[in-house]
């Protein structure tokens, strides 16, 4: 079977699909991966064919324009970008379809494969990378710093969802999607985050049920596989410079604003000052060197990239934005987390990590050098929290998420051609 995987966004958005593609490739399927050239090497080194969409320059330009301190503006810019490239993905996918021998796999919030399903009848797999995209009137996900919750009256819940659709989601997501749908002679859609977002031939939730308990009003056909926990080069040693730094003193704290965040200069400046106040060593993680202070004190270094699977277990704490990839890797590493959520799924992931007892939160408006220093000191001395980190990490020691997800894809879509190993894994996954 030919598997067309379409992915866009940050490392946390793309890596799970590289992981799915690698597993499908190992099962004997032909896999083509469609994405920005920034991710070409990550894809080709695991053996998949790469089809470039857009340019690396465009990727850095778009994410350089996203205002970190304005969640609504950030959402508007990223959805505008997705709308701009959706047609290119659609045409590239369509050009590589072999009738009755092709399926597509993509994030539930990236719509090109869904369009191809409607126009050409190509079976589609939609993946919810984080639980915040699934609506529930029973236990709503946290979509903003102050949002509806399980105890909110039903009328207010309905009003909150109506407001989100009317003022944010319909203008940012539905309107550009309908423009493209009109060009393809497809009927317009409304309120796509109600039920349409869950409508696919196979629906996967890539998180475990102990992280996000299945609600009675969630889509019943969704398979919850667990976290993908894919980290390119996770088993490779860290760079010599980074290893030497870690070994030269007490375990450091790492700070990340997300791999696609180019406007977090204030965060990194406050973080450096916080480490000076608290007497901590620090690793600043950012692809965008321009947001890192030009002069760093002793005990603080800047690293463009390090695989979390290798780095996080060596840390005293991890300060990050709350993206699902960063949060899940920190859970696996058993490292205490200080989360500074800014937008997207981050508020919900932060709340879930706090409920698990492994993290504390500082919103951007609260994140000063003094507040961060105090929070880190409390976090690192909290023996109960450290115990919870270890308990949660044990749950992820054996993590068959990718096998479960790919078993579901093969079973739901009737794919054949896998190995004996695949059949055994399908039986083991139930």
Automatic annotation (TrEMBL):
It comes from the Bacteria. Residues 293-401 form the Erythromycin biosynthesis protein CIII-like C-terminal domain. InterPro entries: EryCIII-like_C, Glycosyltransferase_28, GlycoTrans_28_N, UDP_glucos_trans. Signal peptide: none annotated. Residues 3-131 form the Glycosyltransferase family 28 N-terminal domain. This is Glycosyltransferase.
């Amino acid at each position: 079977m030919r598997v067309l995987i379409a992915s866009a966004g940050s490392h946390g958005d793309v890596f799970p699909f590289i992981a799915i593609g690698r597993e499908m490739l190992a099962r004997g399927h032909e896999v083509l991966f469609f994405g920005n050239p920034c991710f070409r090497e990550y894809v080709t080194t695991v053996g998949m064919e790469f089809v470039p969409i857009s340019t690396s320059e465009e990727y850095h330009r778009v994410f350089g324009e996203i205002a970190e301190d304005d969640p609504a503006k950030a959402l508007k810019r990223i959805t505008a970008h997705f709308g701009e490239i959706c047609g290119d993905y659609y045409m590239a996918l369509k050009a590589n379809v072999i009738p009755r021998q092709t399926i597509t796999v993509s994030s539930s919030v990236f719509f090109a494969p869904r369009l191809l399903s409607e126009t050409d009848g190509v079976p589609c797999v939609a993946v919810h990378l984080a639980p915040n995209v699934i609506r529930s009137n029973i236990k709503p996900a946290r979509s903003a710093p102050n949002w509806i919750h399980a105890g909110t009256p039903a009328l207010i819940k309905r009003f909150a969802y109506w407001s989100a659709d009317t003022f944010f989601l319909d203008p940012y997501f539905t309107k550009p999607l309908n423009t493209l749908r009109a060009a393809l002679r497809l009927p317009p859609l409304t309120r796509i985050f109600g039920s349409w977002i869950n409508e696919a031939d196979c629906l996967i939730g890539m998180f475990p049920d102990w992280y996000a308990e299945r609600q009675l009003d969630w889509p019943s056909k969704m398979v919850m596989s667990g976290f993908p926990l894919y980290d390119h080069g996770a088993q490779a040693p860290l760079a010599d410079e980074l290893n030497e730094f870690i070994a030269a003193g007490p375990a450091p704290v790492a700070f990340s604003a997300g791999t696609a965040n180019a406007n977090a200069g204030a965060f990194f400046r406050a973080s450096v000052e916080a480490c000076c106040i608290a007497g901590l060593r620090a690793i600043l993680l950012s692809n965008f060197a321009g947001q890192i202070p030009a002069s760093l004190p002793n005990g603080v270094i800047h690293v463009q990239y390090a695989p979390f699977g290798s780095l996080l277990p060596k840390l005293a704490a991890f300060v990050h934005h709350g993206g699902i990839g960063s949060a899940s890797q920190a859970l696996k590493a058993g490292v205490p987390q200080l989360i500074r959520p800014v937008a997207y799924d981050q508020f919900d992931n932060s709340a879930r990590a706090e409920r698990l007892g492994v993290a504390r939160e500082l919103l951007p408006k609260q994140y000063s050098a003094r507040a961060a220093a105090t929070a880190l000191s409390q976090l690192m001395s909290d023996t109960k929290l450290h115990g919870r980190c270890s308990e949660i990490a044990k749950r992820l020691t054996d993590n068959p998420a990718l096998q479960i997800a790919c078993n579901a894809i093969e079973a739901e879509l009737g794919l054949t051609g896998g190995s004996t190993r695949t059949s055994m894994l399908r039986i083991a996954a139930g």
